[in-house]
Amino acid sequence: MAGQFENQVALVTGGGSGIGRATAVAFAREGAKVIASDMAGAAGEETVALIRAAGGEGRYVHADVRDAQQVAALVSGTVKTYGRLDVAFNNAGIEGSPASIAELSEENWDRVLRVNLTGVFLCMKYELEQMVKQGGGAIVNNASILGHVGFANAAGYTAAKHGVLGLTRCAAIEYSARGIRVNAVCPGFIATPMLERAGLLSDPAARAGLEGLHAMKRLGQPEEVAEAVLFLASPKASFIVGHPLLVDGGYVAQ
Questions:
Q1: CATH number for the domain including 64?
Q2: How many domains does the chain have?
């Protein structure tokens, strides 16, 4: 039986690990041809190897979402390779260094906003341009629970993710009548390399503390977010636009 994204083309930024990798593999499993983009070449190629090992088709493209020329080339290259762009998951992001607002350096603030907010804007700008030309498509942006609530010592990340939800809603209003649906997923704390880098997975006490913030008392898995992305990108979500879908184990409900 053909997958729900058979003969479609999907672009995933930040596809080298975590949620991005899980989503790229999930799209390929459902029949899509996948472009997995990242800054880490070896990790991106590993994602493509997983796609191919599962019988899917995919390619890795190095791109920095902070750079408009690279993003434009990423989108145009996707179209040159596969002929169109049906689905985009704008997932690339960084966590930044923890600091209170008064102690947060301007460099740290600028770096997080440039990747997590401007990067999403640039990706949408060129993805939407292509989707308008071809008459439709679906975009899912990766926001966060921190697009809904605050979190101490994460002002840059929180501000960026609130901004991603604003961008998502604006794009939905502007483009849904043209056949382009734009939505967002808002994950809770997910067991990814981002948390590992922060030492939050290897430290039992820190992990238990994070798990306790969720009503389900556990961390999410990348594959659980991937399934939400696929739903929003699929015809099953045909009347859903501008929506911030929480995949958070009940974090925000409390």
A1: 3.40.50.720
A2: 1
pLDDT mean values, one per 10 residues, the chain (254 residues): 88 98 98 97 97 95 98 98 98 95 98 98 98 98 98 97 98 98 98 88 92 98 98 98 98 98
Among 75, 142, 145, 78, CA closest to 115: 142
Distances from the Cα of 92 to the Cαs of 21, 39, 102, 211, in angstroms? 11, 9, 27, 24
d(C-alpha 200, C-alpha 245), whole Å: 25
Quick check: helix, strand or coil at residue 125?
A: helix
pLDDT of residue 198: 80
Is residue 107 included in any domain, yes or no? Answer: yes
Token code pair at residue 12: 């995933």
State the sign of the Cα–Cα–Cα–Cα dihedral 248, 54, 21, 204: positive
Closest by CA to 59, choosing from 70, 69, 49, 67, is 49
Secondary structure of residue 85 in the 3-state scheme: coil
Element (H, E) at 9: strand 9-13
Spatial separation of the C-alpha atoms in residues 26 and 56, rounded to whole Å: 10
- Which positions are annotated as active-site residues? 157
